[in-house]
Amino acid sequence: MAQTKLIILDRDGVINHDSDAFIKSPDEWIAIDGSMDAIAQLNQAGYKVVVATNQSGISRKLFDMETLNAIHAKMHDAAQLAGASIDAVFFCPHAADFNCDCRKPKPGMIKEIAQRYDIDLKGVPVVGDSLRDLQAGFIVGCAPHLVLTGKGEKTLAAGGLPPGAQVHLNLATFVEKFLMLEAEN
Ligand SMILES: O=P(O)(O)OC[C@@H](O)[C@H]1O[C@@H](OP(=O)(O)O)[C@@H](O)[C@@H](O)[C@@H]1O
Ligand SMILES: [Mg+2]
Ligand SMILES: [Zn+2]
User: Fold this and answer.
1) Is 20 a catalytic residue?
2) Is residue 1 part of a domain?
3) What are the DSSP calls for 111-130, one per residue?
4) Is residue 73 included in any domain, yes or no?
5) Which of 9, 12, 131 to mutate to test the pocket of ligand 1 (most atoms within 8 A of CB)?
6) Residue 101 among known ligand-binding residues
7) Where is this site: Stabilizes the phosphoryl group (predicted)?
8) Which residue puts its alpha carbon closest to atom 21 of ligand 1?
9) Is 129 annotated as a binding residue?
10) What is the ipTM for the molecules in this complex?
């Protein structure tokens, strides 16, 4: 049986605009133009889309679980309005000094996704705007994709991307290229 076709997305700076002051409420969550339509296109091509996001704002007490759930309810509503579906959101609530296994660049969330969906991670695209997003996926075999929204321009300028990392203007252009390549193969 073929494995589930899956794409793993970072949240802040990929799906929605990011802020150095964190995204602390549903009002602060604003979709990046084209991101919801891009997810809908992936769905229509048979891909499930999941999110793997660092949310240290929880441990920093910038917002609580109820607020994070409300932010994700707004994200799911926005997806539904575009005919898109985000299958699941995996998040790390910890700050760096907690030394957990789930905070990117550690691969804990990505491994959990592989278990949940019973898939081999080899070549599964991970799309992010920070180096840690790409590293978390790359070390467990995923294909790293950087978008230049959010912190992406800074990430590109800083260098040190994992070997083979591809760079895209935004999620929409990643999806366009990815689905074109899939159609050719
Ligand atoms: O991009 P994802 O993983 O979806 O979420 C990132 C956010 O949790 C926040 O992550 C923080 O990093 P630190 O947690 O302070 O290292 C900062 O980069 C914030 O600007 C950012 O909003
Ligand atoms: Mg991000
Ligand atoms: Zn964690």
Assistant:
1) no
2) no
3) HHHHHHHT---TT-EEEESS
4) yes
5) 12
6) no
7) 53, 104
8) 22
9) yes
10) 0.96
